[in-house]
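User: Structure tokens for this complex, please. No commentary.
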Amino acid sequence: MLLTVKDISKTYSNGKQALKDVSFSVHKGEFVSVIGPSGAGKSTMLRCINQLVVPDKGEVRFNGIDLMKNNKKQLRKNRCKIGMIFQHYNLVSRLTTIENVLHGRLGYKSSLSGSLGQYTEDEKKQAFRLLKRVGLDKFAYTRCDELSGGQKQRVGIARALMQEPELILCDEPIASLDPKSSKVVMDYLKKITTEMNITCLVNLHQVEVAINYSDRIIGVTDGRIVFDNLPEHLDSEQINEIYLSKELLV
Ligand code: ADP
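Assistant:
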């Protein structure tokens, strides 16, 4: 197991309980989708893994180490091995594509060399290789705000890969994209993570996409996991259970 989450719960300061005793595990190299209605707790669940959101209780074991018990320095080191891809890309729009990819190395640097933009020749070569891998080497010196949404998300993938991650967390990576760009982004994500044996956990709105790309699907509703199985076991009854939570209907 690369990741084991055990009994995590999270209540936000406004009193909203977003997660209720959530447990699941992910094998090394697995591509797992998390589906569920808006507000179900998918994003909170993903963010609890890299401690962007700190659970109130439970364990988050990454390579056997409980990240909940990490001090700041240990957490910084472990987070380097966990890449993240965001719905709104989180790129620095006034910087070039290659500079944004290089930002994937920031976790490895002192804040001074990072803020001065000091990267080694090897890092620059690697950034180019990764841009080529997502089909964007021609755009290395293009400002990110000139790219399309799909291209921006491919930069997001390259930036995550630049971390040399063991795990990539993707929070609604295609929610802002048209169907054609969505397919391109998902194809790259699946192909590259499979080839590089990188584990991928992806929050998705679209059940069809989850079925097409995943080794396993986790269904979340109202802060709880109600399905955790192979895509072929996801039938219409289970989809109804995930998307028609009783509490949401009340
Ligand atoms: P999903 O990703 O499935 O849409 P979220 O994890 O974003 O679900 O949200 C789960 C619940 O927690 C929702 O009711 C949402 O409004 C609430 N929530 C999310 N983030 C916060 C926050 N920072 N403060 C308060 N409530 C939040």
